[in-house]
Amino acid sequence: MAGIVELQELLQSMTPEIQRGEYVFCTVEGNYTDYVHLNPLGCFVESEGLTLILPVEAAEKAQLPYESTFKQITLTVHSSLDAVGLTAAVAAKLASYDISANVVAAYYHDHVFVHSERANEALLALQEFGAV
């Protein structure tokens, strides 16, 4: 099933949802296989190290340092990886409320990580797209 490409359709049909749990971004040395037991939600290899998105409990149990906790908001619309402008529109909307957006695009959905204490405010801001 192909994802939606048209930006206005994406914005108007998405129903953002806050997922359970809190997450942290950690940077570690080594390979993904060294950390698979922590059940990362996501990872990315950078020249400076391996970035892991972990449940806060897993990071604390492994004694990995982190700076902030985040809630995951899933945009719940099947966006195409070829869609243009969704990340920019979401980031701009949240920026207008002075909320940072850490966006991860997966195959079916885009996921926005926002500081935990701003998650409800971020959700309300993103819901404004459907009110247009």
UniProtKB/TrEMBL annotation:
Domain called CASTOR ACT: residue spans: 71-128
Gene3D superfamilies with a match to the protein in the record: VC0802-like (3.30.2130.10)
Residue ranges of every copy of the DUF2241 domain listed in the record: 2-70
One Pfam assignment: ACT_7
Transmembrane segments: none
SUPFAM superfamilies on file: ACT-like
Protein name, UniProt field: Uncharacterized protein
Source organism of the structure: Desulfopila aestuarii DSM 18488
Lineage, highest ranks first: Bacteria, Pseudomonadati, Thermodesulfobacteriota, Desulfobulbia, Desulfobulbales
